[in-house]
């Protein structure tokens, strides 16, 4: 019995070769093994996600598993990239797209997005040089909460007011953000 000790770089080299051969499924697996060695290597994380984008799922279950993996990889990229606003927004856009595709938002999904945004806001201090970036991220939390607002809403006064503040902040950073404006109107029409 012989054990071969491969490094992350070894797996990354294999993955690159498999990509040139168009063997995306095997490349995705090799990138996953490379990232297993170095979970904070942004180049490898991005390559892993890119390889996954090129794999054609064979079944609906496989598609669902790939999509869940895609979200996990995207979250890890956002976590490692920290204060790169575009990366954080890309991940939150994926989460919001998933929320929209469900058709009906539920409290657990909205609370999950709210928690994600809260963890990212730590990288953007309030009142600091990155205040506009912070406000751009707050939009996701406000929009998520507005998804469960409306006449029969179970949102509390505090949740509604917090979401309104998030959306007002988002609009102060980008006055042309139509989705934030529509979400704010929804919240203004919500009774508590």
Q: What does it look like?
A:
With 192 residues, this protein is mainly alpha-helical. It starts with 7 loop residues before the first helix and ends with a helix. Helix 5 runs antiparallel to helix 6, helix 5 packs parallel to helix 7 and helix 6 (107-121) packs antiparallel against helix 7. 72% of the residues lie in helices and 0% in strands. It is elongated and about 60 Å long. The chain is built from nine helices and no strands.
β-sheet strand percentage: under 5%
**End-to-end gap:** 68 Å
The largest sheet, given as strand count, sense and whether it forms a barrel, is: none
Helices and strands, in N-to-C order? Answer: HHHHHHHHH
* Shape call: elongated
User: Can you give the mean pLDDT?
Assistant: 93
Rg from alpha-carbon coordinates: 20 Å
State the helix count: 9
Oligomer: single chain
Q: Count the beta strands.
A: 0
The helix content is: over 70%
Point out poorly predicted stretches: none
Q: Structural class, judged by helices and strands?
A: mainly alpha
């Amino acid at each position: 019995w012989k054990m071969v000790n491969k490094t992350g770089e070894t797996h990354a080299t294999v993955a690159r070769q498999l990509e040139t051969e168009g063997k995306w499924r095997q490349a995705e697996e090799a990138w996953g093994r490379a990232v297993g060695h170095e979970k904070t290597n942004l180049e490898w994380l991005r390559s892993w996600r890119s390889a996954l984008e090129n794999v054609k799922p064979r079944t609906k279950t496989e598609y669902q598993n790939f999509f869940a993996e895609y979200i996990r990889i995207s979250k890890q990229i956002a976590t490692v990239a920290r204060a790169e606003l575009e990366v954080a927004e890309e991940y939150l856009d994926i989460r919001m797209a998933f929320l929209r595709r469900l058709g009906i938002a539920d409290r657990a999904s909205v609370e999950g997005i709210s928690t994600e945004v809260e963890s990212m806001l730590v990288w953007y201090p309030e009142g600091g040089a990155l205040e506009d970036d912070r406000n751009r991220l707050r939009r996701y939390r406000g929009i998520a909460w507005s998804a469960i607002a409306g006449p029969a809403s179970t949102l509390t006064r505090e949740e509604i007011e917090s979401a309104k503040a998030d959306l007002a902040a988002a609009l102060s950073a980008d006055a042309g953000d139509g989705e934030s404006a529509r979400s704010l109107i929804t919240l203004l029409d919500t009774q508590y």
